[in-house]
Amino acid sequence: MLKKIFAGFLLCAAGNAVFAQTLTPTLAPQPTIIPSAPQLAATGYLLIDADTGHVIVEHNADERLPPASLTKMMSSYIVSQEIERGRVGEQDMVNISVKAWRMGGSKMFIREGTQVSVHDLLLGVIVQSGNDATVALAEHISGSEEAFVDVMNQKAALMGMTQTHFENSTGWPAEGHLTTARDLAILAKSVINDHPDHYALYKEKYFVWNDIRQPNRNLLLFRDETVDGLKTGHTDEAGFCLVASAKRGDMRLISVVMGTRSEEARAAESQKLLTYGFRYFETRALYKSGDVINNTRVWGGEANNVNYGVSQDIKLTLPRGKQDDLQADLVINSVIKAPLEVGQAIGTLTITLEDQVLTEVPVVALEPVERAGFFARVIDNIKLFFRNLFS
Q: CA 375 → CA 133, 147, 230, 300, 303, distances in Å?
């Protein structure tokens, strides 16, 4: 049996407190006007809140498309992973093979028969989009590019990139080398969150190697100081592509734009998405993991009450000005008996906005409650019997 504890609560982000107030304003609130999402000149695109995963804008986000050098985000992710696991050192020297040296397309301009550090090659991949640097790292880590690509596909599957398949480490055109805007957003989020130290490399504007100074091809790094990554791509088949991320205040957005007509177009279309997201939406932290929401009766326990809360931070992406329209419905089990463990679910918290469920999470015990002695349990059982009898 369940009992509803409260409904129609006004959630206040200040201090992550929750105030029990009925939403009965004396004056009708002014409606927040959210314009339609921008329509981009691109084959597929997506805009998400990096913290919540909320999709703000999407178009053909699940269409499988060639990613070109956006592929290198996965290559650099695996290199960063190997460094953090201690299997590769950033100052390890990498032997440059003939295959790496001969790679066409974007190049770092490394030379066959020389040695280059892992760190410098990683900059060559991220900043200069060097196909030569990417192949050199793939061979160093896995012995061959083919073996490295197997790792890339395995990692994509583990990340939930269900529509992605890689044929090489660089994004060089190949039949079956495909992904989606949605999968690329998953990858970008992982790059940002899993390897924050190496993510800082994505905002580097220039890198010099072999006396050649090359700029980062992400034009937004030069136009918008809040943009700090990620990666560009281009082939005749893929068009001009860009995965970008920016942070303003407490909100980080990730945009994916695929199949535009030019370098300028991919930057301009990405900027449209980011501007729209930041202007009309916001990320709100409503509850923190471990914060006490309230307490409830425990039967047959050494303690008569237990504090409860949520086991994970609750953040939501909301249209600006809509926070006061949120409603929280908390339902707690009507009979809670000891023993209780920390984190044990005892109810649910549902947050809605204009009758749309935004999230539903378990409410958990924040402290353990041991079983009481025999006679105390008997007394509680008698009390519970009569409570149920007359309820």
A: 74, 67, 65, 9, 14
Query: Is the domain of 301 the same as that of 252?
Result: no
Question: Is 32 a member of any domain?
Answer: no
Q: List active site positions.
A: 69, 72, 129
Residues 92 and 207 in one domain: yes
Examine the domain organization and report whether 134 and 255 are in the same domain: yes
Identify the domain boundary among 213, 244, 260: 260
Q: Tell me whether strands 251-260 and 18-19 are parallel, antiparallel or unpaired.
A: unpaired
CA angle 244, 245, 249 (to 5 degrees): 155
* Nearest-angstrom CA–CA distance, 11 and 297: 24
d(CA 360, CA 36): 27
Cα–Cα distance, 355 to 132 (Å, whole number): 54
Asked if 170 contacts 103 with a C-beta cutoff of 8 angstroms, the reply is yes
Give the other-Cβ count within 10 Å of 189's Cβ: 19
For 19-78, how does the pLDDT look when each residue is reduced to its tens digit (9 = 90+)?
332 233 334 445 567 899 999 999 999 999 999 999 999 999 999 999 999 999 999 999
Structure tokens at 129: 């989009």
Q: DSSP letter for 127, please.
A: T
**48 and 253 Cβ atoms separated by less than 8 Å:** yes
Name residue, tokens 């929750």.
18
Q: What is the CATH number of the domain that holds 323?
A: 2.60.410.10
- Expressed as residue numbers, the domain containing 102 is 44-260
Give the per-residue pLDDT at 387. 76
CA–CA separation, 238 vs 226, rounded Å? 27
- Residues of the chain below pLDDT 70: 1-32, 380
Q: 242 and 293 share a domain?
A: no
- Measured distance CA(124)–CA(171) in Å, rounded: 15
* Strand-strand pairing, 314-319 and 326-333: unpaired
To the nearest 10°, the Cα dihedral for 161, 165, 168, 174?
Answer: -140
Angstrom distance (rounded) from CA 38 to CA 268: 12
Tell whether residue 337 is among the known ligand binding residues.
Answer: no
Residue among 231, 261, 256 at smallest CA distance from 45: 256
pTM, entire model: 0.86
Rounded distance between C-alpha atoms, residue 177 and residue 187, angstroms: 16
